[in-house]
Write a structure and sequence with these properties.
Layout lengths: L2 H25 L20 H10 L7 E5 L5 H8 L3 E6 L2 H13 L6 E5 L12 E4 L3 H12 L6 E5 L10 E4 L9 E6 L6 E5 L3 E7 L2 E8 L2 E4 L1 E6 L2 E6 L2 E8 L2 E7 L4 E7 L1
Parallel strand pairs: 1-2, 1-4, 2-3, 4-5
Antiparallel strand pairs: 5-7, 6-7, 8-9, 8-16, 9-10, 10-11, 10-12, 12-13, 13-14, 14-15, 15-16
Helix pairs in contact: 2-3
The structure holds S-adenosylmethionine.
Length: about 270
């Protein structure tokens, strides 16, 4: 036997086998696995029962535009679209985006459930009416200012990990097969109340941390501390010396009522 010829035949056979293995690997559809590495957080899917509870708690309707940052296999977005909402997932991993698009088509909601490949920290979320999220506390901290800049009243619903310094509007546990990921928390984006406001009766100075407000109301040269100050969506409420003020914040104006001995109305303009 010619040894050179035999070696060539072996090499040919090995490269044929390698090509066949590569072709088989290429044909195998992409399958994600729980714990799969991601840019800023690994992929762990929200259990189906928790997805459903999140959308219930956020009261998603066909009028909503739901967004998920780090949308994984698209399950939150597809479930929202099945409730008639328009929905958009932002996912860094292009294979997960393609997988989500295939799943949306299979579920018959490709017209409402859309996906884009991108970085969650660069995403435009300004049009969302609901954010449905499953992210790490550190991710959520980095997104905090974007959340505060959302339209007042926007609902942010999360799986398990909450928003630092925010007050939950509601929390509930999903039932059934949800393992460690059953806890659902809802937050409502507060209007921006901080600043100096001019009232007919005096001056109001407010500091704000998410839904909580503190500060002073100065009337006739006498300053009173703000007590129990809260912003719920567009509604603001606080007390000064036992008198309760409530109102609606619309940009740089507040108008509402004073619930003192003599009920009255009040309005304020931000300076
Ligand atoms: C914990 S999983 C949540 C998946 C999905 N939201 C759910 O509830 O089932 C986080 C997802 O974020 C994606 N991800 C990680 N870093 C990202 C980034 N910077 N921008 C967009 N997506 C990212 C991961 O690929 C992963 O799919």
């Amino acid at each position: 036997m010619n040894p050179i010829r035999s070696a060539r035949q072996w090499l040919f056979a090995i490269s044929l086998a390698a090509c066949a293995a590569m072709a088989a690997a290429q044909e195998k559809p992409f399958e994600p696995y729980s714990g799969q590495p991601g840019k800023d957080v690994v992929w762990v899917p929200t259990p189906a029962t928790t997805v459903s509870k999140m959308l219930d708690v956020a009261m998603v309707t066909p009028q909503d535009f739901v967004m998920d940052l780090g949308s994984g296999d698209g399950r939150n977005i597809i479930a929202a679209a099945k409730r008639g909402a328009r929905a958009l997932g932002v996912e860094f991993n292009p294979e997960m985006v393609a997988l989500s698009e295939r799943a949306a088509a299979k579920e018959g909601v490709a017209d409402k459930a859309k996906f884009v490949q991108g970085d969650m920290f660069a995403a435009d979320i300004s049009q969302a009416t609901v954010m449905a999220l499953f992210l790490l506390p550190d991710n959520l901290r980095k997104l905090n200012q974007k959340f505060l800049d959302l339209r007042p009243g926007t609902r942010i619903v999360v799986n398990t990990f909450g928003l630092d310094g925010w007050e939950a509007a509601h929390s509930e546990s999903a039932q059934g097969d949800c393992g460690a990921w059953c806890s659902v928390i809802l937050y409502i984006v507060p209007a921006k109340a901080a600043g100096n406001w001019r009232l007919a009766q005096g001056d109001l100075t407010l500091e704000q941390k998410a839904q909580q407000i503190t500060g002073t109301l100065t009337q006739g040269g006498v300053a009173g501390s703000i007590e129990n100050g809260r912003v719920n969506g567009e509604q603001v409420v606080f007390s000064v010396g036992g008198v309760e003020y409530s109102g609606r914040i619309s940009g740089d104006t507040i108008s509402g009522s004073v619930n003192g001995n003599v009920p009255a109305s009040w309005s304020a303009t931000r300076q």
